[in-house]
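Run log // design_07
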């Protein structure tokens, strides 16, 4: 068999690297613009043409943001996103295991119905949620946000985990049953420890969905006591002006938890995505 042309191989690799560099630039430039603008004084932000770097960096926008209600908004976002992800994790693991390993007539249709609810736009849920939550006294309540986010977090987590659990070795399950473990024990002591990459992917994507949600939070919250960061950021667009400096400062702060979680779980996240890509 003739050896491949090394020149063609190098050109192919170079083209791949150029493509990846272009894609990375498209992804990183908006983040850079947010951070750079957050350090610009207002006079530089509004100047035309704009500049990539500031000659007079300032922390005034961060001081203004941290002195207002945005610390409360950030805490509310962490409570709502973290709470709905944790609750979704508790519910999605047994549900996904049931769909993956205990097939019965109609189970595929039920799984499809569960997942298809994920495609509903949040605006379609806003009015029903408002009416129901008002009846139960959950308007402007962090607990209400946790419950409201669950229908958009849970289907996604079930869908991701079902794919992982379908290829979990049946031999390990049978061996655990022979040792006297029931289904809850198998899940907790065998399946979950061996499925950490998949669990991490599901939890991270569920958290991101809840973390970025805006419409439902805007509908069922009224005051900074329960409002989340996306709703708080929208208050910086007033009738007469847009406070770009404060908005960019708050957006930069809002990115930090997601970046921290992503960097901390990067290795497991890549393993989980690679494993999930091979599922049949």
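design_07 sequence
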């Amino acid at each position: 068999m003739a050896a491949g042309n090394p020149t063609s191989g190098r050109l192919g690799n170079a083209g791949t690297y150029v493509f990846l560099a272009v894609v990375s630039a498209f992804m990183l430039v908006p983040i850079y613009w947010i951070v750079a603008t957050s350090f610009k004084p207002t006079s530089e932000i509004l100047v035309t043409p704009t500049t990539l770097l500031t000659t007079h960096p300032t922390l005034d926008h961060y001081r203004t943001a941290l002195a207002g209600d945005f610390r409360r908004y950030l805490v509310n976002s962490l409570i709502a996103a973290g709470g709905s992800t944790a609750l979704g994790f508790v519910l999605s693991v047994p549900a996904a295991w049931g769909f993956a390993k205990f097939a019965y007539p109609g189970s595929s249709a039920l799984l499809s119905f569960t997942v298809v609810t994920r495609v509903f736009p949040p605006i379609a849920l806003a009015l029903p949620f408002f009416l129901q939550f008002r009846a139960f006294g959950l308007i402007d309540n962090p607990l209400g946000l946790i419950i409201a986010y669950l229908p958009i977090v849970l289907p996604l987590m079930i869908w991701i985990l079902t794919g992982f659990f379908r290829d979990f070795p049946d031999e390990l399950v049978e061996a655990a049953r022979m040792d006297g473990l029931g289904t809850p024990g198998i899940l907790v002591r065998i399946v979950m420890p061996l499925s950490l990459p998949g669990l991490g992917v599901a939890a991270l994507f569920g958290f991101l969905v809840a973390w970025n949600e805006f419409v439902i939070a805007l509908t069922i919250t009224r005051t900074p006591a329960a409002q989340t960061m996306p709703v708080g950021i929208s208050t910086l667009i007033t009738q007469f002006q847009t406070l770009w400096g404060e908005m960019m400062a708050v957006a930069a702060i809002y990115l930090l938890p997601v970046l921290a979680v992503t960097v901390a779980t990067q290795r497991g996240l890549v393993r989980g995505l690679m494993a999930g890509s091979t599922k049949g």
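The chain has one domain: 67-277.
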